[in-house]
């Protein structure tokens, strides 16, 4: 039976003329040494603040927690980062959480690349604190801590949806010629809105459910209410919810306010009407900008 399934000799002779060879990897002749912790972010439009709200949130988180000497890197596409999502934090081996790991399994001499969920632990190690030991998470009381969850949900829901709608969308012709790896904005809205928007095709349609029926008027109406409530809640306080020190909510609020102020008039005007939000964003912006090496 073995001879019955053997490869014919003429085919073996033909394949022998095209042997499969493997070569060692080509190492780069030059590389930039990692001299300090470096945050990989989406490119900024101006200055050193990323134009991506998620990257900017972590920039603000690092700066408002008082971490100094962090460098920035803009030339890495999301596809080249961990999990395909920016930002990532590249730290030297001496500052890595795995610095005491034995040789086997230890990161290489280029240090370790941390995803976003690993950044808070690294910051705690840098500052010599344990954030998990504070049950209030930096807020003045338990009620403020619980309330912060509602504001996070509002910012990452309705406000984020309005921010997506304010971004210019490429034409259908351009999308056909240059397809993007990013999902269409309607898919993003379906993930962040609650309840999610209905599909373009219904249950009685012969076409499978696809697309999203986006109610732009309703989203923008909810967005205006959200910005009004955010302004009223901030009032004249230094930090949101009356905290004496910046909290993760402040980092998130700054990221959204900064991106909204640099977006189209549809969403920007709602923020500029609130003087306290504009002044607060301007003050925090200087703190975040000065917190990085660039």
Automatic annotation (TrEMBL):
Which Pfam families does the annotation name?
A: GST_C_6
Per UniProt, residues of the Metaxin glutathione S-transferase domain are 224-284
Which InterPro entries does the entry mention?
Answer: Metaxin_GST (IPR033468)
Task: Note the superkingdom of the native organism.
Answer: Eukaryota
The protein's name is Metaxin glutathione S-transferase domain-containing protein
């Amino acid at each position: 039976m073995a001879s019955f399934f053997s490869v014919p000799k003429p085919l073996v002779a033909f394949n022998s003329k095209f042997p499969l060879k493997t070569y060692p990897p080509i190492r780069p002749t030059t590389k930039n040494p990692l001299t300090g912790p470096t945050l990989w972010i989406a490119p900024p439009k101006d200055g050193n603040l990323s134009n991506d709200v998620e990257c900017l949130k972590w920039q603000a988180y690092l700066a408002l927690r008082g971490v100094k000497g962090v460098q920035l890197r803009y030339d890495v596409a999301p596809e080249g980062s961990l999990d395909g999502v920016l930002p990532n934090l590249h730290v030297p081996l001496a500052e890595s959480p795995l610095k005491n790991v034995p040789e086997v399994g230890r990161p290489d001499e280029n240090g370790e690349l941390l995803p976003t969920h690993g950044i808070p632990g690294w910051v705690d190690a840098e500052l010599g604190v344990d954030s998990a030991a504070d049950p209030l998470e930096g807020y003045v009381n338990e009620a403020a801590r619980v309330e912060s969850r509602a504001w996070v949900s509002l910012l990452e829901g309705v406000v984020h949806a309005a921010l997506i709608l304010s971004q210019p969308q490429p034409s259908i012709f351009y999308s056909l010629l240059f397809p993007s790896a990013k999902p269409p904005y309607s898919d993003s809205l379906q993930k962040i809105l609650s309840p999610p928007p209905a599909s373009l095709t219904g249950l009685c349609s012969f076409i499978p459910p696809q697309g999203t029926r986006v109610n732009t008027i309703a989203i923008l109406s909810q967005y205006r209410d959200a910005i009004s409530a955010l302004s009223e809640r901030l009032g004249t306080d230094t930090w949101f919810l009356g905290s004496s020190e910046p909290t993760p909510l402040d980092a998130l609020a700054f990221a959204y306010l900064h991106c909204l102020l640099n977006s189209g008039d549809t969403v920007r005007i709602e923020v500029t009407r609130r003087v306290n939000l504009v002044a607060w964003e301007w003050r925090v912006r200087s703190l975040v900008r000065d917190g990085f090496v660039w």
